[in-house]
Amino acid sequence: MSHALSPAPRFAGKTALVTGAGSGLGRAIALAFAAEGANVVVAGRRPAPLDETVALIGRSGGTAAAIAADVSHPEQVRDLVRGTVERFGGLDIAVNNAGVFRGGAPVAELPLADWQSLLDINVTGVLLALQAEVAHMRANGGGAIVNISSNLGAHRRIPGVAGYAASKAAVSALTRAAALDHIADGVRINAVSPGASESSMSLLPGETEADRAVRMKQDSPLGRISSASEVAAAVLYLASDAAASVVGTDLVIDGGSSA
């Protein structure tokens, strides 16, 4: 009698960097990579939540390290990539998930400070991360990058979130442009655009998770939010060898809301 061998973890021996990994989707993505054998560096502005993510990964038998960094500061992003390489010997996969949400005002009343924050973190932060990540990857045999955008922006618009939608539309466009610029360097770049998902960003002001579930039964064709694990699964696919010919795609995960 023969026994089938268990498949090797998809990311065994590889190192993945996940920004915005102190909570929500970023934490779920980091946990998913660790569960599939990757060494994971979790990054964010506040050390305490990052340490919690590292502890969760450790308790599950994975390997992770935390590096505090603000993606809107070029030197901190360069230090983040350098620190990742020093800790684990390389950088094979990067997930640029760090972002902020500012909403609730129409364009005519959009505070300039909110607009600037959205651009600094959601757009410039992704650009700076791409520059540092690509610089290492193209000099070291290539890699895969997944940017986290949103279904709000290039795919869908709703009132009151023009600044956020504009910033995420920029991420979607930047992803496609960067993908064309750097596929010849051996760096595959794609995006995932979640809709309402298992994250605090999808809660309206004062709304509970139970309230959100009721609202989504009406607002989403699927009738619910996407789970964090469903979004993470899409990210891991795009980062994996199974997606070797997927270049410059923007994969929407929103239960049909932007269909």
For this entry, give a set of tags.
259 residues; alpha/beta; Rossmann fold; seven-stranded parallel beta sheet; 7 helices; 43% helix; disordered N terminus
Protein described:
Residues about 1-5 have low confidence and may be disordered. The chain has a single domain, classed as NAD(P)-binding Rossmann-like Domain (Rossmann fold, 3-Layer(aba) Sandwich). A seven-stranded parallel β-sheet has the order 3-2-1-4-5-6-7, sandwiched between helices. It contains seven helices and seven strands, in the order βαβαβαβαβαβααβ. It has about 260 residues and is of the alpha/beta class. This is Short-chain dehydrogenase.
**Strand order across the biggest sheet?**
3-2-1-4-5-6-7
β content, as a range? 15-25%
What is the chain-wise order of helices and strands?
EHEHEHEHEHEHHE
Instruction: Outline the low-pLDDT stretches.
Output: 1-6
How far apart are the termini?
A: 49 Å
User: What is the approximate shape?
Assistant: globular
Number of helices: 7
Main sheet summary: 7 strands, parallel
Task: Give the proportion of residues in helices.
Answer: 40-55%
Query: Which structural class do you get from the secondary structure elements?
Result: alpha/beta
Radius of gyration: 18 Å
Q: How many β-strands, per DSSP?
A: 7
- Counting structural domains, the number is 1
* Average residue-wise pLDDT: 94
CATH homologous superfamily caption: NAD(P)-binding Rossmann-like Domain
CATH class: Alpha Beta
Level-2 CATH architecture: 3-Layer(aba) Sandwich
CATH topology group: Rossmann fold
Pfam family, one: adh_short_C2
InterPro entries: KR_dom, NAD(P)-bd_dom_sf, Sc_DH/Rdtase_CS, SDR_fam
Keywords: NAD, Oxidoreductase
GO molecular function: oxidoreductase activity
